[in-house]
Amino acid sequence: MSDFLNHFRSKELQQSTEKVMPAVCPYCSVQCSMELLEQTAITTRKFKPKPSKNDPTSGGRMCIKGANAHQHVYHQDRVTRPMLKMDGEFISVPWKVAIEFITIQFQSIQAHDGQDALGVYGGGSLTNEETYLLGKFARMALKTKHIDYNGRFCMSASSLASNAALGIDRGLTNSLSEIPDAKCIILAGTNIADCQPTIIPYFRKAKKNGAYIIVIDPRETTTAKLADLHLKVKPGTDAHLANGMLKVLFDENYVDEHFMESRTDGYLEVEKQVESIDLQEISDITGVNVDDLKEASRQYGQAENGFLFTARGVEQHSNGYENVRQFINLVLATGKIGRYAAGYGSITGQGNGQGGREHGQKADQLPGYRSIENVEDRKFISDLWGLKESELPRKGVSAFELIEKIDRQEITGLFVMGSNPVVSNPDSIFVEKALKKLKYLVVVDMFISETAQLADLILPTSSYLEDTGTMTNLEGRVVLRRGERQPPKDVKHDWEILAMIASALGYEKAFSYSSAEDIFEELRLATKGAKADYSGISYKRLDQEGIFWPCPNEGHPGTNRLFDQSFAHENERALFYPLQGKKQSSMTTVEHPLLLTTGRVMEHYLTGVQTRRSPDLNKRYPEPLLEIHPETGAQYNISDGEIFQLSSTRGSMIIRSKFTDQIRKDTIFAPFHWGNSQSINRVTKGKLDPYCKMPEFKLTAVSITPLVRNSSKNPEESVSMKR
Ligand SMILES: Nc1nc2c(c(=O)[nH]1)N[C@H]1C(S)=C(S)[C@@H](COP(=O)(O)OP(=O)(O)OC[C@H]3O[C@@H](n4cnc5c(=O)[nH]c(N)nc54)[C@H](O)[C@@H]3O)O[C@H]1N2
Ligand SMILES: Nc1nc2c(c(=O)[nH]1)N[C@H]1C(S)=C(S)[C@@H](COP(=O)(O)OP(=O)(O)OC[C@H]3O[C@@H](n4cnc5c(=O)[nH]c(N)nc54)[C@H](O)[C@@H]3O)O[C@H]1N2
Ligand code: SF4
Ligand SMILES: [Mo]
């Protein structure tokens, strides 16, 4: 027996192979680079991921999501052939048949319902090349104006605010390497420790060097544990909080008069607006006491330099645009921008959250951050694509408005690439109903996501280990991901799929690319002279190191820091914005007395389609948990670990409670990484910011009712815990 085993083992050893693949994590905006060692023997396959030491952004680190990302690539659930729905069942079909079905269906929809009856829905996980091509595909091959993407739910508030205030929208104005030298850092609605874990050391270093850190969040997150001062703000009141802080800066003369006069407009108006503010009233609205508010303002005001960062906590509101503008006011009033260790940043979310919003999958935008309503921009791009300017569609509508149009049957065919809208949109019961009205739904994915389940046709795409392309990380640094793993035989890259369909629709020449690099070369031309200018960046340069845009020529080093000399508006000045919003009225009702805010946990990514298929991640956090203060739980007869129903005016879902005293008593928090009855977006509502069309993910009035009484708990106990 042992002879046999020895023989077997030596045979295993002989036949084992080792392969090292370069990889860039498919998840968040840090885009940590790594090497994945794959060891294969007769009966086993092992993986060893190792972070790349010389990655200037991650600093040679990776988090648990990155370390386990490969697990979804090798998962048995991967879609490996085109899948056509016949009588309610998916059957696999050859590519030729799949492409024929799409062409026939899309052409028939446009013939019956009009040119704009086709919608395209993209995502921030796509590479820059694929983002660019998806925009070209929608406008040129499908000739529809209806294209938008999931970044609408992610970056739209800060991107509009940055454009309006500073004239350009690049996530961070400075590189992360400057953070350790900052003297004061404000982190507003950003939970970096869970969402971009590998960049936390920059903040730790800053703290060690004496920085004062202020966190603004209704929860005491792992990020908040870094803070010298934590403002436990009531959700939805950030604009007032920032406005109150601005008053203190003016009243106590922490403002930089010289900077405001020489480099900004609108400060006199803002100064006047804050005169009438009563700080006690701000405190009543925000739940932050006046002393803490003053302390935060003084610390930020007196520091010689510093950073202010925002993320989805302040941005995902129906006044998200206004929230961000109010925070940018603080940066401008103190002149903390446009120099070393001083700046603003909206921490981008998805792997290509930044590039995804620059190259044309947004309803109003053409590549390079050009505007689809600007005649010169339209001419530039139509010339490049070989179209007449008049043939280029005009601007369409935002992501959630696309769904509303589908519901009204103004859009009857949809092409989804890189998103799972049934789980990630607000008011998801409505969204699912709307998508069921479509005449034809095509979903390009690696898995049968909740959205793909509704599709008429699923097209299998390659994963991050297989697909080469560039991504633009949270710093605005363009990085090259080399995908060296061979995809499964019948799986194609997103760009190949777009090219195949476009060719079948008669645009073979305009979509005849032989590689991602080929597309990048066209993207360089498309962005030349534009705000997000990539024309000086090449694969050859990127193989050496990542490059910050704008980069207008091959000899240009890239722009690590923005606004040193001037802002990007025509008059070179930044712009203040007085608070427009009225005092918040009470957001809860008798039927729905609690404030729900939503977000993320470290172990899962977005709608969880990939991370729920990583056994090691799923094991750590297998189901959604609702964070609730023990006193609030007692008040509503909920015990710790109990399953209950969470309801709003829109719908209800099922979730288990997790008691924590690190959250405000009037607020509960849930992650959104699960689908079906566990999807938190069944209760959120489709109320949109009027300017940027961001939904209000971070504020819903809800009620909680126990589903099943936990028999091991004495009901008397929970009654006696009531206040
Ligand atoms: N582990 C993990 N990492 C991720 C992702 C993921 O799904 N999982 N997703 C990526 C993506 S796409 C994105 S966009 C980013 C998101 O990154 P973040 O924006 O940092 O993440 P969130 O958890 O959505 O929200 C951040 C914080 O906002 C707080 N908050 C809620 N409401 C309010 C409010 O009204 N005011 C204030 N001031 N704070 C509030 C929440 O308590 C939460 O701690 O993360 C990226 N990284
Ligand atoms: N309640 C609540 N809802 C939210 C948020 C919140 O904080 N709270 N946050 C919002 C934010 S910030 C975001 S970014 C959205 C994101 O939400 P979604 O757009 O739904 O994002 P993902 O879950 O990443 O969905 C991506 C889908 O595309 C697939 N995919 C991944 N990579 C690729 C690729 O390269 N090509 C193709 N074709 N497919 C790919 C995945 O398998 C998955 O099915 O959710 C938003 N929804
Ligand atoms: S999830 Fe983000 S921080 Fe974690 S390894 Fe991936 S890119 Fe890096
Ligand atoms: Mo996001």
How would you sum up this structure, described in words?
This protein has 25 helices and 28 strands. The chain is of the alpha/beta class and 723 residues long. A hairpin with an 8-residue loop joins strand 1 and strand 2. The chain starts with a helix and ends with a helix. The strands form seven sheets. Strands 5-4-18-17-16-6-7 form a seven-stranded mixed sheet, with helices on both faces. Strands 24-26-25-28-23-27 form a six-stranded mixed sheet. 32% of the residues lie in helices and 18% in strands. It folds into four domains: 72 residues, N-terminal domain of TfIIb (Single Sheet), CATH 2.20.25.90; 242 residues, Rossmann fold; 191 residues, Dimethylsulfoxide Reductase, domain 2; 129 residues, Barwin-like endoglucanases (Beta Barrel). Helix 5 packs parallel to helix 20, helix 9 packs antiparallel against helix 12 and helix 9 crosses helix 13. The structure holds ligand MGD (2 copies), iron/sulfur cluster and molybdenum atom (MO). Iron/sulfur cluster binds next to helix 2. Molybdenum atom binds next to loops.
Structure class: alpha/beta
Question: Roughly how many Å apart are the termini?
Answer: 69 Å
CATH class placement of the largest domain: Alpha Beta
- Low-pLDDT ranges: 711-723
CATH topology heading of the largest domain: Rossmann fold
Q: What brief labels describe this structure?
A:
single chain; 723 residues; alpha/beta; N-terminal domain of TfIIb; Rossmann fold; Dimethylsulfoxide Reductase, domain 2; 4 domains; seven-stranded mixed beta sheet; six-stranded mixed beta sheet; 25 helices; 28 strands; 32% helix; 18% strand; globular; disordered C terminus; binds ligand MGD; binds iron/sulfur cluster; binds molybdenum atom
